[in-house]
Amino acid sequence: MARPTTTVHRFAWQAGSLAFGRGAALVSLLLAARDLELARYGRFVVLLALLEAAMVPWKPTVQQGAATRLGREAGGRGWLVSQVRWWAVGSLVLAPVAWWFDGWESAALLVGASAASALMFHHVPTLVLEGRQRRLAIGMMGAQTTRLALTAALIGAGSLTPRTALAAVAVGSVVGAAAMWQRPDAGTGAMGWLLPEVGTEALRWVEQHVPILVVALVLGLTEAGGLDLLLKLMQGVAEVLAGIGIVVLPAFVRGREPVPSLLARTLRLPTLAAVVLAAAAALFLTPALEAALGKDLALGVAPALLGVMLVLSPWMGLTKSALLALGAGGWLVPSQVATSLTTAAASFLAVGGVVWAALAVALAHAAGAAVRWLGLRSRDALPPWREVLSTAGLRDDGARLRRALRRAG
Fold it and tell me: What pTM does this model have?
């Protein structure tokens, strides 16, 4: 298979696989929620959150960061040793939690699914260093497609349960591993525990899963199931909106346009789209989900509060690329810390109900966005907001977009 030859091509594969994977995962969750009672679906998402915690040390973000930092000094055997260490720690810590929550069968499934995910991502460092983003993307898409197909098959056979849904995730990882496989790297350098990358990804796990776990503990599995559907959907859309930053990164690196102007111009249309989507979610998302699932979710104004996440997502994606291009990537970790710690602390608002849990998520994303604002301010790179909100600029952007569509047609 030919390698992508340009940076934009590689980032396009990465962004495309992210959007596809998120979409397939969301469809899988919607199918599971429709077939299961909300309480049983809530049980599945708690097990899935535990699996995501076990997977943290070998998530692609961890491995890509480690590969970039360590280069070819550490490879094959060193990476395998690191994975086995973390797998053993995860099994010792998380398997007993799964056993307490749902019995020994769920604990065994958790350990097996964690091992399958480690197998799937084992070749990520080599793929990244060799520029094989296409193969990485195909592996991720294969894993999610398999999970979706198995979920549908289990529903058709009347066999979907929280445990079989978790098993479908594990089988998807095995398929992804087969798609990503290549000749093992011969490197033997020590990888260590990769604490900087693992710590950052663990904070991201807190941001994504702690609100659901807190709601499950204080309100019950039914409420956790309903909030999880809403939160996963909003997180997926937000990640796609933030993905514009990946595509624009080469423009920041080239430096042909001042960063403030480039940010202002690039934020304009995505932010408008995010505001429209947030308004639509506030008005129509709950009725649409309830109609699709045939269940009463009782989410209240939670979609409106989570709309803050959507509105901020273009800012979060573009500022990440801008800070990296400016050599100020050190601000990204404090931003993630602020988001995650605010999530963990504010999630206890969930004792007041699902709406309060959604408020906690909105506050957390605002905290992370504020730290990135400070980072750009420290580099005199803040976008001029008058230019971002310029109606003349919007008209020009619309005209350019129409011309591009006509050329594509």
Answer: 0.88
